[in-house]
Specification:
By secondary structure, this protein is α/β, with parallel strands linked by helices. The protein has ten helices and five strands, in the order βαβαβαβαβαααααα. It has a five-stranded parallel β-sheet, sandwiched between helices.
Length: 232
């Protein structure tokens, strides 16, 4: 995405009034523009492709094709590798958080969030960062992923054999990403420059085939690099 170009946002929600309210909010931001509206997950996928969206603000519960499946369709399409999905829903259960992240979402927020926080979230995922924190969300991810019945990561999202290709330093960085640290915090923890930390994160994403930091968080827990409740 061109740094000078506005963030192209697609809104996916089956309620026209909700889409209209979000459209007014996002349209009021000087660095964003609404490029389409969808009422189902399938429509969101098709419009995101045709409208060349940067970010899809996706509701979970929609008729025919829900937001989880819509997110999965976007994440599985190689031609849409740069599209980020921000899941926004009334339902903030552990299962919905994990379903959204496993499907390929870059962030998760509830609908009663403050307008300024929603705009900040769109900017965050558009920049390629995950809307995750080292607090409750990270603990939810860890708890669910360590359950025996946890579903596997979708095909193509992660090749476990690639983990062995990471250097010891890269494994350290991946562990800190999975704990929710940003690049500045990683740099401080490992006595690196922020640019070096960012370079490490980008290289790790490339080697593991991860779309963004959200998937790195999942990989960190799925592989056991990070154990819920443990400290580095």
């Amino acid at each position: 995405m061109n740094d000078d170009a506005p963030i192209r946002v697609l809104l996916a929600d089956d309620q026209a009034l909700v889409r209209g309210a979000f459209a007014l909010l996002i349209g009021s931001a000087p660095d964003m523009e609404v490029v389409g509206e969808a009422a189902t997950g399938r429509e969101a996928y098709e419009l995101a492709r045709s409208a060349r969206a940067d970010v899809v603000v996706m509701d979970i519960r929609m008729p025919e094709t829900d937001g989880i499946e819509g997110t999965r369709l976007i994440a599985a399409d190689e031609d849409m590798a740069g599209v980020r999905v921000l899941v926004l829903t009334t339902y903030d259960t552990d299962e919905h958080i994990m379903a959204a992240l496993r499907a390929g979402a870059s962030g998760f927020m509830v609908k009663d969030t403050l307008p300024a926080d929603l705009l900040r979230a769109v900017r965050t995922v558009a920049a390629g960062d995950a809307l995750l924190s080292p607090g409750p969300t990270a603990r939810v991810i860890g708890r669910i992923l360590r359950l025996p019945q946890a579903a596997p990561i979708p095909d193509g999202c992660f090749d476990a054999e690639r983990l062995a290709s990471l250097s010891p330093r890269e494994r350290e960085v991946l562990t800190l990403v999975a704990r929710g640290l940003n690049n500045t915090e990683i740099a401080h923890a490992l006595y690196l420059s922020p640019l070096t930390a960012k370079t490490h994160v980008s290289r790790i994403m490339s080697r593991l085939g991860a779309r963004d930091r959200a998937q790195l968080v999942i990989i960190g827990y799925e592989t056991g690099l990070v154990v819920p409740g443990a400290r580095t």
